[in-house]
């Protein structure tokens, strides 16, 4: 039994559930993603699994396989022949086959049994049945690498929604932004190497940049092979995973060679497939470079083209879905790309054009593509049967004899219809589009089709912009959308601006800013909430926000997660920026905020269930703008680590230096918590970049004006939480910024206070010790007027309040305290404290009061708890607390007589700590300060070294103690032996008894009873000779000394050396950075030194506690007046622009950048040289064509001369020879490209559409030249079709029998039916009237109810379009009209309110639906007063050779906006049928109406001279 039969037996019975047929599909296609949930058993697919699979196209997890194995057989079917009927044809091997093409053994067991109830003839509809598919899973091509694809065998009747669900939910494919359907030759063909390369590169580029799906036939031949090789070359040249391109092959299952290897009822994971072109015969192999395969099965074998209907339905279904990408909801566009091809390709192109799908024809690829490309620029009237015949004879020279005369007629008609829709046709010619060839051509084709598509108002432009944003093709947006054809208002771009921000498309953000989008108008409170709602889930800031929301939910004991508000964002930002900043977004007092009132168009834009459009809709409330929108956007971009986006926004910022430093701080804090090392490195690099930006701007400012630049450092920035640039730099530990010369100059100025920085230190000390010297000009004061003291007391106050003087006085005070403390400890420590000791206690009390002041000093209002935590973080404050606590402990013991001595010991330890505090004082020194930093860094190395040393010390000490001494029970001597002696051994104090040579029994205690002697080692019975293994202890000692003295100590030295070298490079920066803390401390410190500082403390206590005066904060902050601040920020922004321009110039002068620019220019030059040959050929051809044209004109002149001579009797009696060359016509094709075709075709067009509407009847193809009845057309044999309208009371017979037709009276009133034509008498042939406009390709009356003319009435109701003030709106200096249009049930197209007239009626039935009955007479009066704009034939798709529509179009215009009749009409319209849609619409050529109705509107606009 074959694989087919075996698979059918293995399948479980529960898999025999059949999918719903196509008839079960809804009449209208779903417009949203939720509408897809109509497939049975879709709920079995795990949403979490599908979400995880979207990250990787080819999952291999066990759960995913089980999910797929259970879902596919229940929802996807295959087809099997259930009845074997012997065919007259045989297989390739000569064996008997069934009508389905399969061998007998490839059928099911029941299929080969004698028929009982089945007929003898084989019928696919009866003898082919559906059953669960048995071929799906992963496909791997043997011998072609480890690349794995997806495949599935589906029935040809599978609903497209099921396949789309499989691809998006189970195969993990993201919905495409674009669908590229590649069609053409199915056999291998030859393309020019250059054209092939251009096509491959362009196709892959457009797919990769836009996120498109490429759909082909899937076989390893022809155009499918070209596409596969293009994808293969791209993947090989792409080093990252982003290089994956979705290439879907839709092939016929019955034509796939080696398909048996794909059959596996439980799925192949993977199925090994062998690509064997040599033995495939008439079948085809699958292409190994496609990523997914849909194998369409109709139950037959070896029949090509089975997949085309399903492929068409699937492409149509996908193109009707809505894809949400980057905040923009777009209807997935589709484009057809054609290479080469035969008759089937022409049908594909024709169907695509008919369905409104744009096509890109690659000229030069051969056959059909070249035929269409060569005639595409000709007027339709010049595309004749003879011309097409000539083209086919050249391009189809091998198969030209197969073209019959009817086939030529059909091809001519289809090509005429294709060329007539020029807006959907794009010809790609080599060298036409420059280097970015095919990708630009494809995207331009889509935009051209969209631009020419009918639409209401701005919908078309909005759709194009949404496409460009979704594809991330800013180049296309610049060249195709933002042109002079359309004026974009900044408010119109707000929704797509938000989408570009969310989807991280900086180039589009830059483009929108160039187009006038003002961030201050764009960023509102609701916009910010929306942006933060759509943070990337992988973003660290997103997880921190979620934690805040969870904490709030737990705090409020609510069950639902609270909605994100900006105060939640502010809470996280304050953690990142530091507590020195105030909340950027304070918590609102009221929960409800006013809504937005920015008027923008209603564009359907959705992201994660939120509506972008709702942010920009009209409302009665005001718009709540933020204080600094540029800051808000910058923070939003920085917290997501979006470098390019943040850089664009920062360039727009005004407070740019503070913004750069704040960004640096945020990024550094986020980097500390980020788990991904790559992201951490990116954040730190970006933080450093922003620090350099701040340095660059400050450098330019400092060079321009030092004083104003230093104001920028201390200016209180309201936008950044009332902090300063200097404070932000310190919080972010931006050492490069703080160590900048300008910042250091400012700190030095602060350090000297009102004193001049030029004073020598010895002069300051002299004046400090003997203050009358201040009045001897020994000390100079600052030259700044605002700092110059006036008066004697002012000089004294200015000197003693300078931070440097306060620092020196505190040093003097501290040294005095230490000297006094040392004297008391060593000389004057009595049982009863002396006055000196009491002075020390008083001194310490003043120090404690100062530390308390520092702890409670809260200029930013952070609270005691936060200030305490900040106080404890400082190392020197910890040392102060430790010293004070130890001192207090010693003082307590000292005051108790019994613990006097321990108290002195503790006080001695406190003295050591107080001495260590001196290092902080030395940090101000430029010489000693850096060395102290190095010492602090080396202390960390020492602790690390001690850990390693402890391992060796303890291991050696324990081993030595255990070997030498037996059972030492004294703990203190155990510690001595294990740790202390081992530690001393490192420094050369080797124990004398360790080797037994210097052993002395008198130096130890044999039994360990002497508390002052160690226990003796193991000795003999006489206790005189040691018996321990001396050789072992000596070896251990040598190894111990080797590793500790040589290895570890040298390691410590090397670590110290490395630390010294590393720190030495940055020591200056570190010292300058830490110098600020000391300067700030003494800048805000009371001027008196301890213990006199208690007087200042008492003064503060009186002012704050008794007088309740606010404390004077000495922070380095300065709040400027608004005018001064605005001028300062404008000056900063101006210099920022200079800095950015300088940076751009430096980048251009960069060697690497210059090399890249030169390389790019060389590539362009090479491309131009490569195109030179093509251009030369084109010029030569054009010149030859011009020459032939001149010869043709000369021939015509000669012909005229010969005819004139012949008319005057000079004829020779012979015929005039034919002159001229037809090649001149072909040469003119180049010049005709840009020429518009005649505005109106000479013959009816809609009446010759091949597919008759509302039926499956195909018209006989009628080219333009064969339309008139007068033109001979022997092949003309149209089918007959007459619909039976059961709902119509009056209709002509649908039978074309002569007996029934003779009862009809033409060209007169036939009872109630008016059979008179507005065009006069019409011909009647064989009882049937002939269409006065010519052939249509169909006999009978079609869907019309009468033979001959079918009369209709179309009122065109118009009014002027007006502004709110009542003035008429103009466009291109012409007034604009509004027309009344309606959309009837079961129709997707809008139409004029009118239609066919029933016999004996004066108003159309459709018009009666719109109007109430009581308004019918009044509307008839309006029609009588109206103007007739058309009376005659109407080009309608329902017209046939024997029945046609003639209409009367009457213009009813309301000139005044206060017209009573118009108001009455509007009131009656409001009460009409609820199933109808009626609206006043601006009259425009792009209004989505029936084509024949638009011609009537054109006449109305011409009547009033209005815009059209």
Explain this structure:
- With 1508 residues, the chain is α/β, with parallel strands linked by helices.
- Helices cover 47% and strands 10% of the residues.
- The longest helix is centred in the C-terminal third of the chain and has 57 residues, at 1151-1207.
- The chain is elongated and about 150 Å long.
- It starts with a helix and ends with a helix.
- The model is unreliable at 1-60, 591-614, 616-624 and 1218-1239 (pLDDT under 50).
Spans of at least 5 consecutive residues with low confidence: 1-60, 591-614, 616-624, 1218-1239
Mean pLDDT: 81
Rounded to an integer in angstroms, the radius of gyration calculated over CA atoms is 47 Å
Give the helix tally.
Answer: 49
Strand content: 5-15%
Span of the ends, CA to CA: 71 Å
Instruction: Give helix % range.
Output: 40-55%
Q: What is the overall shape?
A: elongated
Helices and strands: which structural class?
A: alpha/beta
Across the major sheet, the strand order is 10-5-6-11-9-8-7-14-15-16
What's the structural blueprint in terms of helices and strands?
Elements: H1 3-10, H2 47-53, H3 62-75, E1 77-81, E2 86-90, E3 96-98, H4 124-127, E4 128-132, E5 136-141, E6 148-155, H5 160-170, E7 178-184, H6 193-210, E8 212-216, H7 222-237, E9 246-252, E10 268-273, E11 292-297, H8 307-319, E12 322-325, E13 328-331, E14 334-339, H9 343-354, E15 359-362, H10 367-375, H11 385-395, H12 405-420, E16 425-428, H13 437-451, H14 459-471, H15 474-481, H16 494-502, H17 506-514, H18 519-522, H19 525-533, H20 540-556, H21 566-577, E17 606-607, E18 610-611, H22 629-638, H23 643-650, H24 656-673, H25 677-704, H26 706-714, H27 725-731, H28 735-738, H29 741-752, H30 761-769, H31 792-800, H32 803-826, H33 835-856, H34 864-873, H35 875-895, H36 900-916, H37 918-922, H38 928-964, H39 971-986, H40 1030-1083, H41 1093-1106, H42 1122-1149, H43 1151-1207, H44 1223-1227, E19 1280-1282, H45 1298-1301, E20 1309-1310, E21 1313-1314, E22 1324-1325, E23 1328-1329, E24 1339-1342, E25 1348-1360, E26 1370-1371, E27 1374-1375, E28 1377-1383, E29 1395-1396, H46 1405-1410, H47 1416-1425, E30 1427-1434, E31 1443-1454, H48 1460-1470, E32 1477-1482, ...
Parallel strand pairs: 5-10, 6-11, 7-8, 7-14, 8-9, 9-11, 14-15, 15-16, 19-24, 25-31
Antiparallel strand pairs: 1-4, 2-3, 5-6, 12-13, 17-18, 20-21, 22-23, 25-28, 25-29, 26-27, 28-32, 30-31
